[in-house]
Write a structure and sequence with these properties.
six-stranded mixed β-sheet; five-stranded mixed β-sheet; 23 helices
């Protein structure tokens, strides 16, 4: 097992440290719990005397409405206190005079947390603590002068979780994650991340869920509901159009209003309406010429007025600054007035210059009392509902053992079986050792880097998982790989120490084995396993060569092992321990089976072994398209913007044609299509019925799924809708609903009910500023992938339906034309 108490990178440049949202700074770096407040008893009720003035203030009276109490609080606050509540507490241990980090321990309430709101001790208002991350809570596991450990569970990454297509399971993962958030003293988890996979090279795609907004929205809503069931909050991110890492703080994304509303905002809309996250995090980038944190149309008109969002908006860390040079410049400050009036309530992590600017704007009248009070109310609402406000006695002892079981189950269900010729899997024979190749088999990647990383107690490698399942591993290969892997890891660690915390992770090179060794293994082993590994993270994007495409040493390994084992009539299985899409078309025919577990969290090796051995039947489905070659990706032509070295402008010319919407509409053959995934058993999908032949207010679609094979398993049914396209061009079909069966025994059936609502029929028509469903015939297609359609049915809409009128927003700042079919 990998032990994550191994020394972490300690020395970092200020620049790289600033990039990490898991580090925070402050003028008052130490947050201390106040002593228990005095109690006031009145008419049989007891109240905390938060400001210790010996009388019951309105804000201390829990019998009153939250709004009434908050208004009393605001009335008692000075301008400086108001300003301090609108910025974060900053970074512990940062010396502003010297502009450098000082030595000493992390004295934050929760070491390793990402920051929080400002405490006002004279009023008894505590600091609300926020912490990364999307794959599990990111805090410090080892603390100075403390013999305890504070490990958190590394859950599967976003691509793995979404591949389950199981919202009930994701809700369970969220509950487990929220348990750790609360019991470690954190109030808000900075996640889930739910940006769209616009391009396979985005360095943070592993944190996100899909190229499709319905999947992203439904999975995120389930996660938010699960986390928040613990009485702690979430922050869905990054809102919006943050689909690349390179120059993320300065790039201007030019996106049409239709593409925004149908693709890049739709998932956020679903999540807001179905889960009401406590907070939303605005993104770094500019959108059509204006920082997202300063766009009132995004943060107020759309998010609050149209969608009904009730919570707080915070910036991403240093959002509104054009790069770190601007942060370090003493005479530069983000446009705080524009950010706050736009509806961005909390500026994180909080800089002294921002607080000073807020006070100056209040005094000058540029920020009115009414405007400031709106932001303050939202911040104070968050504080009032937080565990910190109720002085929750967190245990520092979450259910790590139970949560490890949750992550093992979720990771196994997220495994996608891409290929399984002649049913080579499940593999159950244990009469001879397995020949396990690939350096990643011995150093399995549990998750990505940056703010999506987790400090877990252990990580189960593939060979450990196989061994735990009773398989024996070829000891000669293990003896060759382990020292090689250790040496390469040391080289990689030193490189990353030198480059800083956000050094882009690089894959470890493959061990070049003597061909005679491989031939001998083909004689003595029953089967060959080859793991291909990829990692990525915050701060940079992936490359085409030796990342999206396999490197030559990996190609050589697949070629030589496959030739040797096939010559002996033996099979070869590839395991893809990756966070995002890679090229598969050129080599997939050389091997017999391909398992895609993604980056499956700390129990990953056990989860893969569960599927490999048949203990779990794979039921994962792709939530993104695997193209034959990178150039087939619709955004490849304008990725990554211009100039490529440090892009300041990127145009989303592909419009709504992202992922399968493009591949299917323009008839571009993928290597593996959206929604694809095999099983160890077989299913029959039949008896498709519509509740009506004509659409009124909603329509129920029922379909029966029967397990026709010999092994218990689960199946996903995907509902694609084809709509009339007389007014505006549309994709040939779009995912509008999905459902997953229970574990069906051989011969067992289950009826799935899917619902279509009016907005599912509608497209956004820009010149009418409305979501409109055209009159005509609609086709429902039920499939087990976007190209494997099992049954279809038609219904009609008698006359055009204006589903939703919207406000004008997102005016273009440059001329371009979206791709049309």
């Amino acid at each position: 097992m990998k032990n994550n108490s191994i020394s972490k990178i300690a020395k970092t440049s200020l620049l790289s440290a600033l990039l990490i949202s898991g580090i925070s700074w402050a003028k008052n770096p130490e947050i201390k719990e106040t002593k228990i407040n005095p109690i006031i008893t009145l008419n049989g009720f007891t109240f905390s005397d938060l400001n210790k003035n010996g009388k019951l203030d309105r804000y201390e009276d829990y019998r009153l409405s939250i709004q009434d109490r908050i208004q009393d609080l605001i009335n008692q606050m000075t301008d400086d206190e108001k300003a301090s509540m609108l910025i974060g507490i900053g970074m512990p241990g940062f010396d502003w005079a010297k502009m450098q980090f000082t030595a000493g321990k992390d004295t934050a309430k929760v070491p390793g947390s990402a920051g929080g709101t400002t405490a006002i001790s004279r009023l008894g208002i505590p600091s609300v603590i926020v912490s990364d991350g999307p794959a599990g809570l990111r805090i410090k596991s080892i603390r100075e002068e403390d013999s305890n450990t504070y490990y958190a569970t590394a859950f599967p990454v976003g691509t793995a979780l979404a591949s389950t297509w199981n919202v009930a399971l994701i809700n369970t993962v969220g509950k487990a994650m929220g348990n750790e958030v609360k019991e470690y003293g954190v109030d808000v988890l900075l996640g889930p991340g739910m940006n769209i996979h616009r391009n396979p090279l985005c360095g943070r795609n592993f944190e996100y869920y899909s190229e499709d907004p319905l999947i992203a929205g439904k999975i995120a809503a389930a996660m938010v509901n699960g986390v928040q069931s613990n009485g702690v909050g979430t922050s869905i991110k990054h809102f919006a159009a943050n689909n690349q890492e390179r120059n993320r703080m300065g790039v201007n994304a030019h996106v049409s209003e239709r593409a925004l509303r149908e693709i890049y905002l739709r998932g956020f809309e679903i999540t807001v309406k179905e889960s009401q996250p406590w907070t939303v995090m605005s993104s770094y980038n500019l959108l059509n010429g204006t920082y997202t944190s300063a766009r009132k149309d995004l943060l107020t008109t759309v998010l609050r007025d149209e969608w009904g969002f009730k919570g707080l908006v915070m910036t991403d860390w240093f959002g509104g600054y054009n790069g770190f040079g601007a942060i370090m410049a003493k005479d530069v400050v983000s446009d705080v007035a524009k950010q706050l009036t736009a509806g961005n309530d909390l500026l994180m992590p909080g800089l002294p210059a921002q607080q000073n600017a807020i006070v100056e704007n209040i005094k000058s009248g540029k920020l009115s009392k009414e405007e400031i009070n709106i932001n303050l109310r939202r911040v104070l609402e968050l504080v009032m509902r937080s565990p910190a406000m109720s002085n929750y006695k967190y245990s520092n002892k979450p259910n790590l053992k139970e949560n490890a079981e949750v992550t093992r189950q979720a990771a196994a269900e997220g495994v996608v079986l891409l290929k399984n010729n002649n049913n080579v899997l499940p593999f159950t024979s244990k009469s001879a050792p397995l020949a396990v190749f690939g350096v990643t088999s011995y150093d399995f990647i549990s998750g990505g880097t940056g703010s999506g990383d987790v400090n877990e107690a252990y990580s189960v490698s593939l060979i450990e998982g196989l061994t735990n399942s009773g398989f024996s591993i070829d000891t000669e290969l293990e003896g060759l790989y382990k020292p090689f892997m250790a040496a390469q890891k040391e080289i990689e660690t030193k490189r990353r120490e030198k480059e800083g915390l956000l050094a882009t992770p690089k894959r470890l090179p493959e061990l070049e084995l003597n061909q005679e060794v491989i031939k001998n293994k083909a004689n003595t082993s029953e089967l060959a396993l080859i793991t291909i590994g990829r990692n990525a993270g915050e701060g940079d994007d992936r490359k085409v060569d030796e990342d999206f495409n396999l490197a030559q040493d990996e190609i050589n390994l697949i070629n030589v092992v496959s030739a040797a084992f096939h010559a002996q009539g033996k099979k070869v299985v590839v395991v893809l321990n990756i966070g995002g899409v890679i090229e598969t078309a050129s080599w997939k025919d050389k091997v017999d089976a391909i398992l895609l577990p993604w980056q499956p969290g700390q129990e990953g090796g056990n989860s893969v072994a569960d599927v490999f051995s048949g203990k779990v039947t794979p039921s994962g489905k792709l939530t993104m398209t695997f193209p034959v070659k990178y150039e087939d990706t619709p955004s490849a032509k304008n990725w990554i913007g211009t100039p490529a070295e440090n892009p300041t402008s990127v145009t989303y010319e592909e419009g709504i044609y992202v992922g399968y919407r493009y591949f299917n509409t323009f008839h571009v053959k993928p290597s593996y299509e959206f929604g694809y995934g095999l099983s160890y058993t077989t299913f029959d999908v039949s008896n498709l019925k519509l509740s009506s032949s004509a659409f009124a207010d909603k329509m129920n679609v029922t379909v029966t799924v029967k397990n026709t094979g010999k092994i218990a398993g689960k199946e996903v049914v995907e509902l694609y809708l084809s709509a009339p396209a007389k007014t505006i061009d549309k994709p040939t079909e779009e995912l509008k609903a999905f459902g997953k069966t229970n574990l069906l025994q051989p011969g067992e059936s289950q009826t799935i009910v899917l619902t279509l609502n009016p907005k599912d029929l509608a497209s956004f028509i820009p010149n009418k500023k409305a979501w409109i469903a055209e009159a005509g015939s609609y086709k429902v297609a039920i499939g087990t992938s976007s190209l494997n359609i099992k049954q279809t049915a038609n219904f009609t809409l008698a006359k055009e339906k204006i589903v939703e009128k919207i406000n004008s927003a997102f005016a273009a700042d440059s001329e371009f034309t979206d791709l049309k079919h």
